[in-house]
Write a structure and sequence with these properties.
By secondary structure, this protein is mostly helical. The chain is built from nine helices and no strands.
Length: 223
């Protein structure tokens, strides 16, 4: 009975005019360069295609958290409660600055090519966990994403239906679209690495993303 109700809900969303308007809006949001884009590119330069895709999976998983908070009204509470929103803003700003400093340090000192040893396999596994965590925290601690899901997502939810279920479905559409786009960007970065410019590209990406993250963190803290 529940499965049947879910199918009806999915069908109603997909064939509604609101869904296509949401798809256009979310596509434009996804392809607009920002923190998530540069983080995926940086981590791809650091650890390859899998590292970039794992980072994207972490970023996109955060969308379900925002959708859940939006459906439960917690995002609205955060925005209307000054101290809670300030805490979220400062946490996001500090995290961006921390990411930026790490990237700048890597750009300055460079990185050696990984060796084909058992320890490098362990480091690669750890790196993928770190990449997922970096992506997830980057998205969850981004107050702009919280504002987007609080302000925009409810506009595409049918008030006569299950708001929570619809929010998760719309977040799932965003997840698939963003994963496709970001993994495509990771593939592009890997292709450039294959042209023999991996070290210079890696350091350039680290310098670019490091400066961007620090600047964005400072701007977020100042606003």
């Amino acid at each position: 009975m529940i499965a049947g109700a879910s199918s009806v809900c999915v069908g109603a969303i997909v064939f509604s005019e609101l869904f296509w308007a949401y798809l256009v809006a979310i596509t434009l949001l996804t392809v607009t360069p920002g923190v998530d884009t540069l983080l995926v590119m940086r981590n791809t330069g650091r650890g390859g295609l899998k590292d970039g895709c794992v980072t994207s999976a972490g970023i996109c998983s955060g969308l379900f958290i925002h959708a859940t908070l939006s459906a439960l009204g917690i995002s609205l509470l955060l925005v209307e409660t000054a101290w809670a929103f300030s805490a979220l803003k400062w946490a996001g700003a500090c995290y961006l600055v921390w990411l930026g400093i790490g990237s700048l340090r890597q750009a300055i000192r460079g990185e050696d090519q990984p060796r084909a040893t058992e320890s490098s396999v362990v480091r690669q596994a750890v790196s993928q966990r770190v990449s997922f965590r970096e992506g997830l925290l980057s998205n969850v601690l981004n107050p702009k994403t919280a504002l987007f899901y609080m302000a925009l997502l409810p506009q595409f939810v049918d008030p006569t239906g299950n708001a929570f279920q619809q929010s998760l479905i719309l977040a799932g559409v965003h997840f698939l679209l963003a994963m496709f786009w970001q993994c495509g960007l990771a593939w592009v970065v890997v292709s450039f690495r294959g042209l023999g410019a991996s070290i210079r590209l890696k350091r350039a990406l680290n310098a670019l993303t490091g400066g961007f993250f620090v600047a964005m963190g400072a701007k977020l803290a100042a606003n």
